[in-house]
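Students often ask what a holo structure prediction actually looks like on paper. The answer is less mysterious than it sounds. You provide the chain, you provide the ligand, and the output is a string of discrete structure tokens encoding the 3D arrangement of the protein together with fe (ii) ion.
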Amino acid sequence: MEELERMRGKAEDAERKVERLSEQIMKALASTIDAKDKYTNGHSFRVAEYAEEMLRRSGGSVKEQEEVYYMGLLHDIGKIGIPDEIIRKTSGLTEKEYTLIKSHPVIGANILKNISEIPGLAVGARWHHEKYDGTGYPDGLKGEEIPVMARIIAVADAYDAMASRRSYRDVLPQKVVREELKNGKGKQFDPYYADIMIEMIDDDKDYQMREV
Ligand SMILES: [Fe+2]
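The corresponding structure tokens follow.
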């Protein structure tokens, strides 16, 4: 009996070790993405945290929260395939450059598709730029055609883009960000999750959810 206990303990240790290692590798990958551009510093981590909190508030299981966190961490991994000088360009993108930038979701999904243990990773990468009204890319999916986790990440991603600095502007005021989310309901954003994000904003009295 004691032997059995000991073996079980060992198996559990090994499992925890693999889990920790997986998490560390995903975080290292996220840092690699964020390091490409000083204006995306920490972006992947914040998107992951906001997405996790949105899912928690909407009653998602701990396992789902964990999955959306990892999806958030790696949603922009396809940017690795885009030349730095294009990613860093702040304005005056040519048509060709813009088309190239818009290929990052597909590149990302291809990079992640072989991580079969977490199939959601490729889902988040591929569809985080879809819009609820069907005007997004790469597939122009509409409403509930867009996987729910990708809809959540889309809201978190757009929120953080506004709540972080750009070369041409500072972090947007919280009131402005809130208004943008409200206006984007049913257009860019799933209205249900936009409302959850707005609830998070209203709870965030000192505007902590922002780039510092
Ligand atoms: Fe993206």
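Residues 76, 104, 128-129 surround fe (ii) ion (CB under 6 Å).
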